[in-house]
Amino acid sequence: MRRLLLLLVILATLAGCQNYEKGLEQSVARADETGAIALLRAIALAERTYSLTNSGEYGTLKQLADGGFLDARYASEKPAKDYVVTLVVTPKEPGKPEGSFACNAEPEKPGERLGRHFYIDSSSMYVHYNDTQPATASDKIVQ
User: pLDDT by residue (tens digit) across 125-134?
Assistant: First the structure.
């Protein structure tokens, strides 16, 4: 009887440890997500400002950093912890007031860690997210 009770206590403790560990992983993932969202919002604001001072053209991360619109660390190869950031800039066409940009932040190792996919573009200042695949403008908006 004592062995059965001891076994139950050990199993309950292990189950509690697993829940605690999963909670820690989720907390780390949410912190990384917060950093990625903040980065996308900073990029969008920098792009708007850059566009106003560059005849409607948007800039690359390097151009934004070199122009003082973004901190230099954002122009590095890895501007967000555990996220890969991709910024695509489209030059403005003749007769159009401005070009465009689209920026994604993807979990660095999808499937191996928790984390949502994020997206922002020049059409709005909203960050969109998708739980399972690269986000687009048609995905849910981060609240």
Answer: 899 999 999 9
> What single-letter amino acid sits at 16?
G
Query: What pTM was estimated for this model as a whole?
Result: 0.77
Which strands make up the sheet holding 100-107, listed edge to edge? 83-90, 100-107, 117-121, 128-130, 140-141
Q: 123, 125, 121, 89: which is closest to 104 by C-alpha?
A: 121
- Residue 2: alpha-carbon gap to chain centroid: 51
- Mean pLDDT for 136-143 is 94
DSSP string, the chain: -HHHHHHHHHHHHHHHHHHHHHHHHHHHHHHHHHHHHHHHHHHHHHHHHHHHHTTT----HHHHHHTTSS-GGGGSS--BTTEEEEEEEEPPPTT-S--EEEEEEEESSBTTB---EEEEETT-SPPEEESSS---TTSEEP-
